[in-house]
Amino acid sequence: MTSFNKVILLGNLTRDPEVRYTPNGIAVANFAIAVNRKYKQGEETKEEVSYIDIVVFGKQAENCGQYLNKGDAALIEGRLQQRRWDDKETGQKRSKVEVAAQAVTFMPKRQSSGGGQAQSHAEPMPEAPVDEGEIPF
After folding, report:
1. How many Cα neighbours within 13 Å face the side chain of 93?
2. Residues 26-66 pLDDT 10s
């Protein structure tokens, strides 16, 4: 049976992106976003927040590191992936589900509350496809 793995999320960064490089020189950026969901329970409106880890590769990773900051909104398109490893301290098997972003769209910056019309100066980010064959992990 054919599978389908596609995720689209809109949220705010919970921390600045951390960019590092693989031994082959490929940029890898890690950050997390908070995604809010409002719902009604009886007469009461409640809010639920999910914190989602994001990993981005290549030029998009470098752009995220350069242009995104904690609190910025971003639209993430990608797929779910699970990483597995053995914890060196406890020897236990560990795993983590994260979103491997294939496209990151920078959303307009929030307007300051100083009154008047402020303009967004967000730099557009090119959406280059990632060749996953070059990624060593």
Report:
1. 3
2. 999 999 999 999 999 999 999 999 999 999 999 999 999 99
- Is residue 61 within 8 Å of 78, Cβ to Cβ? no
Non-local (6+) Cβ contacts of 91 within 8 A are none
The Cα–Cα gap between 64 and 19 comes to 8
Place of tokens 């940029």: 27
Among 34, 28, 43, 41, smallest CA distance to 15 is for 34
The tens digit of pLDDT for each residue in 6-21 reads 999 999 999 999 999 9
DSSP letter string, 8-66: EEEEEESS--EEEE-TT--EEEEEEEEEEEEEEETTEEEEEEEEEEEEEEHHHHHHHHH
